[in-house]
Amino acid sequence: MSKSVLITGSTSGIGLGIATIFAKNGYQIMFHGLEANGAEIASNIGEKFKVKTGYSNANLLDSAAITQLVEDTVSQLGSIDVLINNAGIQYVSPIEDFPNEMYEKIIAINMNAVFYAAKAAWKYMKEQKFGRIINISSVHGIRASEFKSAYVSAKHGVVGMTKVMALEGAPYNITSNAICPGYVRTPLVENQIKDQAKAHALSEDEVLEKIMLIKQAVKEFIPIEAIAEMALLLAGEHATTITGSTFTLDGGWSAQ
Ligand code: NAD
């Protein structure tokens, strides 16, 4: 039977790119995300690549809904072999003005949801002696930028959690790795361009030139396909010993 992957936030941006490459490689996909056309995306990709797909719009702010999302994956696809914690949000503001509810929301979606999803998947992965957990952190999981206190905290937290999961998963062939991309042109970044322009009093073009790509040695957005192919490698049968690692795809940002 082909392997099943749950990808959170896979009806948009990076998650959708990862789902497409996994479907192309024969994986059954549990799509997830809040986009209104989520079910349609899932069935179109399923038809195109002739793989079974499911869809859920579980709210990641709700830990019970996350557990249910994992249960739905197993009941609809037969197993959960790969868990890709990808969903995430951003909010940009100086600390003193940062709304508490946005801080808490970012920690909940970007970090706590990773824990709840892995926790729910754990018993299945342990039982089948196969599990691949891939957490989409960020270069902000290993480096900081101003005005991103909640995001940087959550993404650093995810890198730490990835390592604990690797240690606890090792006896059961459950691996856990983090991918840390630099800037990728997705809806999340389009919103940030606007927010950064406001926070720094710059035009949107100036934000790209003076802020976003300034820290990358390669002055290009990271292609979604590069992240998706890295995830595919980490999900593979032969990736048993690749665990507890942080893979930067950041155009040389963290080389400095
Ligand atoms: P995106 O905005 O295109 O997609 C985010 C997805 O998360 C969407 O499907 C959305 O519906 C889902 N989501 C958000 N809040 C949710 C909630 N409460 N419940 C359920 N689903 C929810 O974003 P993206 O740029 O593709 O980002 C994907 C991941 O990659 C995020 O974790 C992000 O932090 C990380 N990342 C992005 C970049 C970048 O430059 N775009 C760089 C590094 C890391």
Describe the model:
- This protein is α/β, with parallel strands linked by helices and 256 residues long.
- 48% of the residues lie in helices and 14% in strands.
- The protein has eight helices and seven strands.
- The chain has a seven-stranded parallel β-sheet with strand order 3-2-1-4-5-6-7, sandwiched between helices.
- It is globular, with a radius of gyration of 18 Å.
- The protein binds nicotinamide-adenine-dinucleotide.
- Residues 9, 11-15, 33-35, 59-61, 86-89, 109, 136, 138, 181, 183-184, 186-189 line the site of nicotinamide-adenine-dinucleotide.
- Nicotinamide-adenine-dinucleotide binds next to α1 and α6.
- The pLDDT mean sits at 96
Measured by DSSP, the beta-strand proportion falls in 5-15%
The helix-strand sequence is EHEHEHEHEHEHHHE
Let me know the largest β-sheet: 7 strands, parallel
Helical percentage: 40-55%
By DSSP, the count of extended strands is 7
> How big is the Rg?
18 Å
Helix count equals 8
Please report the distance between the alpha carbons of the first and last residues: 45 Å
Query: Could you list the spans in which at least 5 consecutive residues all have pLDDT below 50?
Result: none
Structural class: alpha/beta
Q: Spatial order of the strands in the main sheet? A: 3-2-1-4-5-6-7
Name the hetero compounds present: nicotinamide-adenine-dinucleotide
Work out the oligomeric state of the chains in this entry.
single chain
What form results from the Cα inertia axes?
Answer: globular
